[in-house]
Amino acid sequence: MLISSITLGILKEIIVFLFLLSLVPLIKKNKYITDSSILVKLKILFLCGLSLFLIFIFLGFMFPRGESDYLKGIVDNPPLNFILSGFVSLLIGAICIVIIVMLYELIIFHRKRVTILNFKILIFLSIVYIIWTNFKGFSSGQIPEDILTGEPRNVFGILAYISIFLNSFKSSWVTFLNRKQKYTVLICSVLVMVFLGIGLNFPTKNIAPYFSLSVGTLQILTWYFFLLYAVLSFINILLHLPSAGIFDKKVKQLSSLHQLSSSVASVLEIDKLLKEIVNHTYNITNSDSIWLLIQKDKNSPFTIGASKNLLPEDKILVNLDPEGFLNRTIIGSKSSLILNELKKELFISGISKGSLIGIPLISSKLGTIGILYAKKNNNYGYSEDEDYILNAFANHAVVAIENALYFQDSLDKKELEKELAVAKRIQETLLPKKVPVLYAVEVAALNLPCKEVGGDYYDLIKLSEEKLGVAIADVSGKGIPASLLMSNLQACLRTLSKENLTIKEIVTRINNIIYENTDEYQYITFFYSEIDTKNNKITFCNAGHNPPILLRKGDSEILLKEGGIVIGWMQNVTYKQREIEIKSGDQIIFYTDGVTEAMNSEEETFEEWRLRKIIKENAKNPPKIIIDEIIKEIKVHIAGSYQIDDLTLIVIKVQ
Fold first, then answer.
1. Domain-wise residue ranges, the chain
2. Is the pTM of this model over 0.90?
3. In CATH, what number does 431-654 get?
4. Whole-angstrom distance, CA of residue 318 vs CA of residue 309
5. What is the dihedral of CA 556, 562, 567, 569, to 10 degrees?
6. What is the pLDDT of residues 104-154, one digit of tens each?
7. Distances from the Cα of 610 to the Cαs of 149, 306, 548, 561, 637, in angstroms?
8. Nearest CA to 641 among 583, 600, 596?
9. What is the second-level CATH architecture of the domain 270-410?
10. Could you tell me which of 571, 583, 567, 493 has the C-alpha nearest to residue 531?
11. Residues 493-512: pLDDT tens digits?
């Protein structure tokens, strides 16, 4: 009977060990996670840790052991012990491997090659430690003391624990969580530390070795690894909490900048445009009052073109002193001015409390055409962040004001129309002349500029008989500069798409080229993908563009949003790509914000939910019919109003 127990025990350990080894390839060299999937990995970690804790408590009550004689097993019946302990061992081992895989993906997030090497060393040491534990256990017939106590007493165990300690410091994903997410993870980390800490001081921590020496060793290593990683991540989150609000603010400001620029670029009525600039500045800076001084021609003084929350008496005083101290200082330096402690003698309007920022509106043709002021009632209300974002917005506002002034000036109208005609011809040459024919997909596309020249761009590149490159973009600005930027983008894309590069490498190179060859604050929202009908997949990278919608045949939706920030904004940005399986009947809808932001006379936008509704209702129709239905519904929605932004649609249906 004893020989039978030993034989079955050895057989069980071989099966369990091979099972654990078969799961090791789950840890892939180039596996990565996106910013949006961090919380998913953390949730899986939390649930796996809680599951282990509950399993150990249950097993501790069901199979209490007061001795360390491993060969006797859990029950006295060897075959039953083989089946029972084998099942439990595989269950615990699988959960431990999942925890290790999740920790690995978090650890290598935005890390270098040496991080992967360090983790592989940890896996190697753990495997050797497990082998040593089995040898020691079967040699002596007892569970090794260091497994029961959790204190390694051999060189491989000590090295494994040291490796765990070194790997636990890698938690760069913390910086990509917003304030709310940081607090959520902080609370979960405390819970993890509590139940893992209890587990280490509870008799249940010794239960796993009675089922399997391999799993017992893996469990205690995983337990310490998870606990230490939770503790160090908790500390890292605490250190990052003070800056969490700043990170959220920067994300909001970058998003707002795109919205502001798109909004003001479409308004040509000067008075309405100035009000738009003031209102958007008020919202983005959370200021108490805003006013915009404007010089409509070189011979006119600076006067208030638009304001918000500025008292009537202050308006009079500002207009009486167009060449006051602040105006002279800003115009003379041609740079922004921040006063965080206002002094009455510096400001003739009598506004002497709080803080103020002034941004010059400088035109390359007309010089300083205006000054944008924002004021808060509290001291030290403005920082370099507001200065940076307002200067970026001012550059777009200047272009919009210039266009509005030219539009209203009859002497310059012919020149403007000539420039627009040239830009229109440039733009028309960039868009595809015909839709390429490709096996297994049906494609339709439409571009409707709101003016003579639009900022939207799309391209359909036939890479092979079974692969199609699809691009869609929204270029900041209007006129010839935007058209030339689109031309640059198309040339880059057409060239790079023919080379043997990954999607993210193409977008990264385009970003660097655009950044090096454009003025500051110019950028492009850009989405590029390759549809492979042979392997039934779409690979894509989204650089700040409206996420295309992948509509499954069963009405499920996937937003194609992984990638990075807009191109042309910063150099050497690390972009990501994602690969998704496509099936027969799937539809992919690419669009620009002119679709969802189409506005009626009541200032109600068309919004994404209406777009999705139309797509689902026409899921069985060809792409051309779907586009026609979308345009029809948009026209119904904006009836009594006019199109304020360029509109581009691409619909692809998998056959």
1. 2-242, 270-410, 431-654
2. no
3. 3.60.40.10
4. 14
5. 120
6. 888 877 666 677 788 888 888 888 888 888 777 766 666 776 666 666 777
7. 62, 35, 14, 19, 10
8. 600
9. 2-Layer Sandwich (3.30)
10. 583
11. 988 988 889 999 999 999 99
